[in-house]
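Limitations
The C-alpha cells in this dataset are predictions for the assembled complex, not deposited experimental models. Users should treat interface geometry with appropriate caution, especially where small molecules or nucleic acid strands are included. An illustrative entry is reproduced here so readers can see what is and is not provided.
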Amino acid sequence: MAEQPLLREEADERAVLRRAMPFLRPHRARLAVALGVGLADSAALVAVAPLIGLATAALDDGDRGSLGLAVALLAALGLAQLVLARVGELLLIKGGEDVVRGLRERAVENLATAPLRFLETHRSGELLRRATGEVAALAAFVRLHLRSLVSSVATLAFTLIVLACYSWQLLLVQLAVFLPLTLLVTRWFQRDAASAFGGKASAEATVAATFSETLTAREALQTARGLTGWSARFERENRHAVRAARRALRVENRIDLVSLIEGAALVVLLLVGGWMVTRDAVGVETVVVFVVASRNLFDSFADLSQLVGEVQTARTGLARLLDLLSATEPARAARTAPAGLPARGDLRCTAVEFGYRAEGLDLHGLTLDFPRGSRTGVVGETGSGKTTLSKLLCGLYEPDGGIVTFAGTDLRDVPEEELRRRVVLVPQEVRLVSGTVAENLALVQGTPDRERIERTVDQLGLREWLADLPGGLDAEVGQRGGNLSAGERQILGVVRAVLADPAVLVLDEATADIDPVTAGRLEHALDELRADCTLVVIAHRPATIARLPRVVRLERGRLVSDGPAGPGPQDGTPLVHEPQVRLT
Amino acid sequence: MAIAVSTHQPEPAAGPPDGLTAEQLADEDLEPGALSAERRRRAKALLRGSLRPHRGTVAAAMAAAAIRQLALLAVPWCVQKALDDGLQKHDSGALLTWAGATALAALIQFAGLYGWQYWAGYADAKVGADLRSRLLHHLSGLDRAALASRGHGDLAMRATRDTDLVREWVHGLAVWVVLGTTFLTVLPAIATLDLSLLLVTLGTLPFLIWVNLHYPRRFAAASGELARAHGSRADAVADLLQVGTGLRGTGGHRPLVDRHHAASAEVTARTLVAARIEAGWAAVAPFVPRLAVAAGVGFGGLAVLDGHLTIGGLVAFTSWMAIVTLATRVLVDRLLERGQADVAAARIDEALSISPVVAEPAAGTAEDLPVHGTLEFTGVTALRDGRTVLGPVDLAAAGGEFVAVRGATGSGKSTLLRLAVRLDDPDTGRVAYGGTDLRTVPLDQVRARMAYVAQRPVLLSGTVADNLRLGRDLDLETLHQACRTAGIHDQLTAMADGYDTELGEGGTALSGGQVQRLAIARALLGDPAVLLLDDATSALDTTTERLVLDRLRAWAGTGRTILFATHRSAVLAAADRVVTLESAREGEGGTDPEGPETVTGEESMEVARG
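Predicted assembly:
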C-alpha cells in the first residue's frame, strides 16, 4: 500500500517547544506581555523581605521616617500585586488557551481531511483520546499550572538574587544545608513512590473488583454455600489493602523530612548569621531578611518539585499532539483545482491496483469506464473488492498502481472540495449525528436550505414517508441516529447524496436495508432524476441489479465479466449469498 | 453462617424513615441539607460506630497533630528569642540556647507530623476496610427480590466512593485539633506581643473567611461549565471520527468541523470565565494578609520604637500571620465539606438496612429438613412487578426421579427451579421437601439439600479449582470425581495448568459448554439430594450431552431427584417424565410449538419414557 505515516506510540519529545513554535508565534506579543507581568508579580513578592529588612534596620536606628517609608512601600507592593497577579494570570491563560485552541482546531481540521486509510488503520479510540482527553489535559496545564511554573521559577530566581546581594556567604550556607538533603529525600521518596502508590491503588482495585464480582455471583455463592469461604478471600484482600495503604503512608511521609531540613537550615542560618553579626560582617536586618525570605525559597522549591510531574505530562501531551498534527498534515497541501475541470464528465479507472497490507494486492489491475450518464451495477462475493473499488472511484483511497480519472483529470490532483461536487459515495452504513432530520440532510457540501431539501424529498417520492416520521423534517434522529431504523437511515443517506447533486453517484449497498417496495421506488426515482448523472450501484438484491443495463462482476479483486445484465437471477433468489460483513 | 446475615436488622428497607427514597439516595451528589434528621442521626451513628474500634489510632493521630502544631508555632517564638536575646545583644550563649530550642521544635514538629499523617492514614484505611467488609457481608446474602431495583454500579459505589468519603472524614478529624490548637495558641501569643497586632490579625479574619467562601463556589460552578464545554467538544470530535468518515464520501464532514470549532470556541470562552475567577481569587486572597503585614510592621514598629516590642517579636508576627492565613483557609474548606461524609454515611447505612425478602425462619422456630423425600410444589405462583410469571403449578418429584420441565419462553421454568432452592419464595402456595415447607428451614440446610445450576452460570476470577470449591473445603479427588460425572474432567486435565488454570477476566476463556459442565460439577460437589438444572446443557453438542445425561442419571441412582428445565430433545428423551408449563400470561397459552398438550400442573404429565 501507499506510504502512510502512522502515529507513534511514544511520540518524540525532543525539541518539542521548538516544533510548537509555529503555533506560539501568532500569540507571541500577548505571551511576552503576560510573562513580563508575571515576572513583575514575582518581583513584588520577593521585595517584601527586603522591605521588612529595611523596617528592621530603621527600628535598629530608631528612624521613624524610614519605618514609615517601609510600611508605605509594603502597602503599595500589596496593591501592585493585587493588580499584577490578576492581570498576569489572565493574560497568561488567555495566551496559552489561544495556543491550545489553535492546536486542537488544527488537529481536527487535519483529522477531517486525513486520508481515509489513516483513519481506518488507527483505532478511533486512540485518535479520539489524542484529540480530546490529551488536548484537555494540555489546556488544564495552561490554565492551572503554567502560572505557578512562571511564578515559582521567577520567585526562586529573584529570591536567590536578593539574598546574594545581602550576603552571598549566608546564602551559600543555606543552600548547602537545604539543597543536597532535600534532593536526597526527594530521590528516596521517588525511588519507592511508584511501587508504594501503585501497590496501594492495585490492592484497592482488587478489593473493588472482588466486591463487584460478589454482587454479580451472589446467587451462585449462595446456592453453592460458598459465601463463608468467599468472604474469607475478600477479608484477605481487604487486609492486604490496609497493609498496602500503610506502606504508602510510610513512603509518603518521607517527604515530610523536608520540613525537618527546613528547620535545620533555619538553625544553621541563626548560628552562622549570629556569628557573622557578632563579627559585624552583616547587620541584624540581613538575618531578618533571610528568615523571612527563606520561606519563599523553600516554598518555590516545593512548588517546582511538584510541578516537575505536571510539566513532564504536559510535554508528553504536547509531543503526542504534534505527532498527530505531523502525521495528518495534508500531504498535497497545494492541490488546486485544475482550471476548467468540467462539472460533468466520464469516470475511468485504468489498471488500478490496491492493497490493504504492505504485501499482496486486494485489487489487481482493474480497468473500467463509467461514461457520463451511464448506469452500472457491480456484483461479487464478500472480499471480491467491491467496497474497495467504490472508495477508489470516489478518491477516498489513492490507488497503489494505475490511475482513476474524472473528465481526464487524476482524482489525486483534484482538491477534496471540488471532488465532492462531482463524485459522491453513499455507504451501506449511513452515519447520522444527533439533531433533526433536516440538520442531517444538510450535512453535504453547500449546506442546502430547507426549500431545496423539501423539493428533493418530493422528487424522490418520499413525501409520505417523511410525513410519517414524528415531526417530519424536524424529527429528532436521536443519539447517532438511534431513533431511526437502519433502512430509514439509508433513505436519508440517499436523499443526502442527491442533495449533493454530483456528476457520479456511487451507491455501495445503499438500499440494502430498505424494504423492497420503498427501495424499488427510490431506485426508480434515482434513475429518472437526471439523465446525465452517472450511477455506479453495488448491490446484492436481484431487483436492484435487474434494473441496471450493465453489470460488472468482480472475483477476488479481478474483473471477471463486464457487459449487459445477463440472464440474471430469474428465479428471484439473491444473486449471491453473503453475510453482511463489511470489507473494511 | 454467612447467609444468616440479616435477621438482626430491625427496620425494613421499605418506608425509609424520612420519605427520602432509596432512589433519591442513589443520587451520589445529594446535598447534605436534603438529609432528614432521622437519616442524619443514623448516618452520624454509623460514622461513630465505624470509628469506635479504631479510636486508639484516631486519638494517637489527634495527639500527634496537636503536638506537631504546638511545635510548629513555637519555631517563630524560638527564632524571635534567638534574634532578640542572641543576635541583638551579641549574646552567643543565648543564641546557642535558642538555636538549640529551634532545632528541638523543628524535630518535634517533624515527629508530630509523621505520627499525625501515619495514624490518620492508618485509621482511615482500617475504617474503610471495615465498611467494605460490612457492606459485602450484608449485600452478598441478599436475594434477587431485595435487590430488584438496585443497580450493581450504585451498590458497588457505596463500597468505593462513599467509603472513600467516610475515610476522608476520618482522616480529617485530626485537622480540627490542628485548627483549634492554632487559633487557641496564636491569638493569645500575638496578644502578648502587642494588642495592636492582635487587632490587625482579628481584622483580617472576616475578609479571609469571605474570600474562602466566595471564590471556591464560583470557581466550582465555572469549572463545571468548563468541563461540560470540554465534554461537548469531545462529542463533536467523536462525531467527526465515528460519523464523519462515513460522511466523507458525501463531503458532509465540513459542517461537523464547523460544529467542532463552535464547541472549541465555547471551551475558550468558558476557560476565560474560569480564568477570571481564578485570577481574581489568586490576586485577592493574599491581598489583605499582605496589608496586614504592612500594618503590623507599622504598628509593631512604633511599639518597638516605644520599647513595648522587640524586632524578633515583629518577625514572629509575620510568621504567625502566615500560619493564621493558612489555617483560616483550611477551616473554611473543612466547614464547606463537612456534610459530605453525612451523605456518604447515609448511603452506606441505607445499603446496610436493605432487608432480605427471602428470610431465615424466625429464631427458635426453625425445623430440620429431611434427608430424603419428595420435592413438592403445591399451588405455587410467582409474581414479578405485579405480573404473574408462574403458575399456579402443582408438581411432585420423588427421589430417584428425573423430571424434565418444558414450556415457552416466559412460562416460568426458571422461576420454578429458583423457588426450590429459595432464590425466590412463592407468592402463593408452598414448596416442600419430604413434607417440610422450605420456608421453615434454615437457608443453609435448603441449599445443602438442593443444588442449582443457573441458565448462564457465572465464573469467578481464580483457578478452575477455586471456581469448583467456591470457598468450600474440598480435596482435589472430590473435585475430579464431580468433574468426571459432569463430563469435563478429561478436558480440564488436558489444559496446560489443569485444575490450576486461571479463569475469569484475563484468564483462559472457557467455551459456553465447558462453563455449563463446570457449573454442573460445582453443583454436584455439595452432594445434594435434589439437582435443579436450568437448561444446563444448552451449549453442549449432542454427543457430550448424552454422555453427561447418562452420568447424571447414574449419579442420581434411586435416591436423588433431578429437575431439569429445558427444550432439548435429548433431555426430554432421557427424563422419566416431561412436564409442560403453560405460559402464566393470559392469552399466551399454547405458544409452545413443541407442546400440543399445553396444560398446567400434575395431571398434565406425559410419560416420555417407559
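Some entries come with short summary sentences. For this one: Residues 221 and 274 of chain B are 9 Å apart (CA to CA).
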